[in-house]
């Protein structure tokens, strides 16, 4: 097992974007310490408020969920005025996920967030399963994500991390990760929900244990080809075993997403299990 | 709502089935769930983990006992409608399930001893029964309207006679009580009961009819909406509820965390 330090100033276990509500809802499930020290990626924040898509937004399938939630969020102003200060007061290490329709929007978001007290880092959502359908900047080629990352990096202080969250597409992931790295990403999060469809044919993304083998393959490829780039594994992490699979494949950390919808205590348990003072090898094998 | 976790917030615990009964078309499970009955307020719900499923199942709480030979317990009502609810309904005595609760915003209780009309249909009428007990404790005159497609899906109207001044039973097929729907009878019943507050729980058409009747009569209404909640805890944003805020601005809130109980006049029924 490698040392769980990606040099990002962040812990090895984070709450994945869009699976932690506003953050407050997790407080009841984090034990006596509450949210203090939790590495929390917010749901994607956009410049303007978004109501999100119509229901049903989530459909259960064997081993996972198909979702098309539509990035509901109160918009940057409201987030900065209410949610962010609350999270910072609670001791949460806040990584703000950002999403935009244009590179200009990503740059605006990064600039405004760089001045907000308590933002530990940014995660750039450049791999949404249905970006065009959701009205986001469409990422088809690695240079698309790279150009977004450089626009964000220019506006955000170099001493704070910018994570690129990528789609777990095995045939393109190494190229995509390399482009983001060269554009200034501090780390890549691999991956996002896998493009999928609801039973009625609507576009969505598949998440949960079903996607873990796909994301794991992607993480392994990136870690092998780009050993200098920290990789955070995301997809189907729900216990120590599934987290260790990513760490063994070369990830420097993991994000917990869909598992929180199944058991909201998952992230608290994994934080204890992967805390630096314990030896994961002894605890879990 | 408080920001401080503790006795106010929900807990995630291992619940144990201590009794299971089939009553008509529903399965009633009595569960021990340490900390949940103590925190429960009428209108709260619980989320149960189903083996082999990622999403959870939200269940209404029909009854809470502060003490029994098993300690504090809660009763949930399950209508087996798919593989998840079938699994829950099939759990035998002694089975253990992961349960989170109590979840959501409960019914707000009136400060004064006003007259209240409670309107419910099917298994989703469950939260009205603990509500009726609380209202009676406060000296409120409670009228109850329970409705169902047929007798098998009529929820425990007999038990409610203890806490309600009057009970009206409606079935769509006329198998018991008066034949008809809530929409056909609620205005009349509201006028007769002279209620100041209408509480409703059930499918959307019932809630809408109750909220509409309340508005016409100048009464307050609170409705417990039932939108499928994949997590139940407010984390996934998968249960959109279109509302109009106090400020007149249209919003989409989470039925599980910002509801399930909301003011009837705040719901944008046409968008639901």
UniProtKB/TrEMBL annotation, chain A:
SUPFAM superfamilies noted in UniProt: FMN-linked oxidoreductases
Dihydroorotate dehydrogenase catalytic domain segment(s): 11-270
InterPro entries reported in the protein's UniProt record: Aldolase_TIM, DHO_dehydrogenase, Dihydroorotate_DH_1_2, Dihydroorotate_DH_cat, Dihydroorotate_DH_CS
Protein name: Nitronate monooxygenase
Gene Ontology terms, MF aspect: monooxygenase activity
Pathway membership: Pyrimidine metabolism; UMP biosynthesis via de novo pathway
Name of a matching Pfam family: DHO_dh
Entry keyword set: Flavoprotein, FMN, Monooxygenase, Oxidoreductase, Pyrimidine biosynthesis
Transmembrane segments: none
Superkingdom, natural source: Bacteria
Gene3D superfamilies attached to this UniProt entry: Aldolase class I
Signal sequence annotation: none
Cofactor: FMN
Automatic annotation (TrEMBL), chain B:
Organism superkingdom: Bacteria
Keyword rRNA-binding tagged: no
Listed transmembrane segments: none
Keywords: 2Fe-2S, Electron transport, FAD, Flavoprotein, Iron, Iron-sulfur, Metal-binding, Transport
Keyword check for Isomerase: no
Alphabetized Pfam families for the sequence: DHODB_Fe-S_bind
Domain FAD-binding FR-type: 10-109
Parts forming coiled coils: none
Gene3D superfamilies attached to this UniProt entry: Dihydroorotate dehydrogenase, electron transfer subunit, Nucleotide-binding domain of ferredoxin-NADP reductase (FNR) module, Translation factors
SUPFAM superfamilies noted in UniProt: Ferredoxin reductase-like, C-terminal NADP-linked domain, Riboflavin synthase domain-like
PANTHER family: DIHYDROOROTATE DEHYDROGENASE B (NAD(+)), ELECTRON TRANSFER SUBUNIT, DIHYDROOROTATE DEHYDROGENASE B (NAD(+)), ELECTRON TRANSFER SUBUNIT-RELATED
Listed name of the protein: FAD-binding FR-type domain-containing protein
Organism of derivation: Nocardioides potassii
Lineage per the UniProt record: Bacteria, Bacillati, Actinomycetota, Actinomycetes, Propionibacteriales
């Amino acid at each position: 097992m490698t040392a769980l330090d990606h040099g990002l100033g962040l812990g090895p276990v984070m709450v994945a974007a869009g699976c932690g509500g506003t953050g407050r809802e997790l407080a009841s499930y984090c034990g006596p310490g509450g949210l203090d020290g939790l590495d929390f990626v917010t749901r994607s924040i956009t410049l303007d408020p978004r109501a999100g898509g119509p229901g049903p937004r989530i459909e259960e399938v064997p081993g996972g969920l198909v979702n098309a939630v539509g990035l509901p969020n109160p918009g940057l102003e409201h987030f900065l005025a209410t949610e962010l200060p609350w999270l910072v007061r609670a001791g949460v290490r806040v990584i703000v996920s950002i999403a935009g329709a244009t590179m200009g929007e990503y740059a605006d978001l990064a600039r405004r967030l760089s001045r907000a007290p308590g933002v530990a880092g940014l995660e750039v959502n450049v791999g949404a399963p249905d970006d065009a359908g959701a009205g986001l900047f469409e990422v088809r080629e690695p240079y698309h994500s790279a150009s977004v990352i450089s626009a964000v990096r220019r506006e955000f202080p170099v001493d704070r991390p910018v994570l690129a969250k990528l789609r777990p597409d095995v045939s393109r992931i190494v190229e995509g990760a390399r482009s983001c790295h060269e554009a200034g990403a501090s780390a890549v999060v691999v991956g996002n929900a896998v493009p999928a469809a609801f039973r009625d044919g609507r576009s969505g993304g598949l998440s949960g244990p079903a996607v873990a083998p796909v994301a794991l393959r992607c993480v392994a490829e990136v870690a092998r080809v780009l050993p200098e780039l920290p990789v955070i594994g995301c997809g189907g992490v729900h216990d120590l075993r599934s987290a260790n699979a990513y760490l063994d494949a070369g990830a420097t950390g993991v994000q917990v997403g869909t598992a929180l919808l199944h058991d909201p205590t998952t992230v608290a348990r994994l934080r204890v299990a992967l805390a630096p003072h314990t030896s994961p090898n002894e605890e879990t094998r | 709502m408080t920001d401080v976790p503790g006795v106010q917030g929900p807990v995630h615990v291992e619940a144990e089935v201590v009794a299971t009964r089939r009553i008509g078309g529903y399965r009633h499970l009595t569960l021990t769930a340490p900390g949940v009955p103590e925190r429960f307020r009428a209108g709260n719900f619980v989320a149960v983990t189903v083996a082999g499923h990622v999403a959870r199942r939200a269940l209404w709480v029909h009854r809470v006992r502060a003490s029994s030979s098993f300690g504090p317990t809660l009763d949930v009502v399950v209508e087996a409608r798919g593989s998840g609810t079938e699994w829950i309904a099939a759990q035998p005595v002694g089975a253990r399930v992961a349960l989170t609760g109590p979840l959501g915003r409960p019914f707000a209780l009136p400060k004064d001893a006003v007259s209240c009309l409670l309107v419910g249909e099917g298994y989703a009428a469950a939260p009205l029964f603990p509500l009726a007990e609380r209202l009676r404790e406060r000296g409120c005159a409670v009228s109850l309207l329970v409705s169902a497609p047929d007798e098998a899906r009529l929820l425990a109207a007999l038990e409610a006679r203890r806490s309600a001044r009057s009970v009206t039973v409606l079935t769509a097929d006329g198998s018991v009580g008066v034949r008809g729907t809530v929409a056909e009878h609620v205005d009349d019943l509201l006028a007769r009961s002279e209620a100041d507050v209408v509480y409703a729980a059930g499918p959307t058409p019932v809630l809408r009819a109750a909220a509409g009747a309340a508005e016409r009569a100048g009464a307050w209404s609170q409705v417990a909406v039932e939108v499928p909640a994949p997590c139940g805890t407010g984390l996934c944003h998968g249960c959109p509820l279109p509302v109009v805020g106090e400020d007149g601005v249209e919003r989409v809130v989470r039925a599980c965390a910002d509801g399930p109980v909301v003011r009837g006049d705040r719901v944008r029924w046409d968008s639901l």
